[in-house]
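Summary for the steering committee. The consortium agreed at its last meeting that each partner would contribute one worked example illustrating the joint modelling workflow. Our contribution is presented below. We chose a case with several input lines so that the handling of multiple components could be demonstrated. No manual editing was applied between input and output; the record is shown as generated.
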Amino acid sequence: MDRLTIIKVGGKVVEDSESLNALLDQFIKFSGNKILVHGGGRTATEIAAKLGIETEMVEGRRITGKSMLDVATMVYGGLVNKKIVAGLQARGSNAIGLTGADLNLITARKRPVQEIDYGFVGDVVDVNSRELRMLIEENVVPVIAPLTHDGNGQLLNTNADTIAAELSSELADFFSVYLFYCFEKKGVQVNPDDESSVIPELDTTLFQQYQQEGIINSGMIPKLDNGFQAKRNGVKEVLITNPENMANGKGTRLIL
Amino acid sequence: MDRLTIIKVGGKVVEDSESLNALLDQFIKFSGNKILVHGGGRTATEIAAKLGIETEMVEGRRITGKSMLDVATMVYGGLVNKKIVAGLQARGSNAIGLTGADLNLITARKRPVQEIDYGFVGDVVDVNSRELRMLIEENVVPVIAPLTHDGNGQLLNTNADTIAAELSSELADFFSVYLFYCFEKKGVQVNPDDESSVIPELDTTLFQQYQQEGIINSGMIPKLDNGFQAKRNGVKEVLITNPENMANGKGTRLIL
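What follows is the complete predicted structure of the assembly.
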């Protein structure tokens, strides 16, 4: 099977134009098929504040009321996505920006209200990769914003780490998928203050142990859960890394 | 050649959810290949105002400073575009939202500063329809936002009427193109206050005469210039109409 590199970038990396340019320079170095999945939470929070909409987070997840969904649609689907697309086109990479609504790529279900009402947040139900694969085969580079739809006209806010994992899992049937979770740090660290404490390989036993010991904290847990799920679904490699180390394969590698 | 219907919708039609739904109900009735090109200026003005950015218009054209370009990118490329895409998906139409940067679809040049500095406004230089045609052949329905790029990473704000005409002209080599400019009124009216005064057919001689007599005013002139240009480039039919009359072909038909 052909190799497909799926890179999820979040945090400050995509929201500051200098670090975004550095990331895109690294990204285009990957030869062959590739997909970029991005976040944009900081900009959404900033724009929301300017519009007088308060940001409410529960365990790192954004409560998405109607106004906040509009902000997410503007920022993720518009501002961040199209800047990345234009930046890749400038580098000779034939990018296309997509949300889960485009091409009916990712259908989700509004998260049922239990203890917390997350609002217009979607849990992924189905990935339809037919047209996406057609585009990839034409050397197009999809750039995916963290938005899905319910198939009944409702857009939904969906975690970008989850989208990267779900896409990787679906595409593992057609490609040899390498998934990179790319953020500010060099990998998963035993000591958050010590860059040299990156865990080179993490299996599920060690992951559980580190969770129990409180070494791996709440922000990282869903990302790793997503990563392990992707591995179980046949994704060839899952690496937690930063833009500088993407290409040389350094970081935290998940193993089953 | 296969028929391709290109519908440009602007003004209030796409920005009020009730009229948008009515439009989408009409739009999906067109069988076969179709493209929707949309505006979104009112929402952009509204969001800009909330963000403290002043809107400046010269002869109906928006002056697009850096902040206003961000608003245009958010509103046209994000909010309006993705709502339409989700609405079409809900109607079983496999829509994809695109700007001119996506798939390198429309390259433009920042308008040179002469008497007026329009800011980040782009004049179309080139349309690349290769991947777009591939999508159309797969029954995908492109939804195009009025944004282009310069190929060097800069997004540009570009008039939606112009985008519709340029796309129509390019695609006339591959399809039998029917272009509909769809707005609030039934067509081009001799008397702006009399709905029954719609001009059924307009040729370039009559267009010049009406311009000289001040019957056709400044807002309509660029739209009609675009429409006549599309006709000269081989577009089969250009009709100025409203959502209710799109399907029955009533309105103002341009003839050479």
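The first strand of chain A starts at residue 3 and ends at 9. The first helix of chain A runs from residue 12 to 15.
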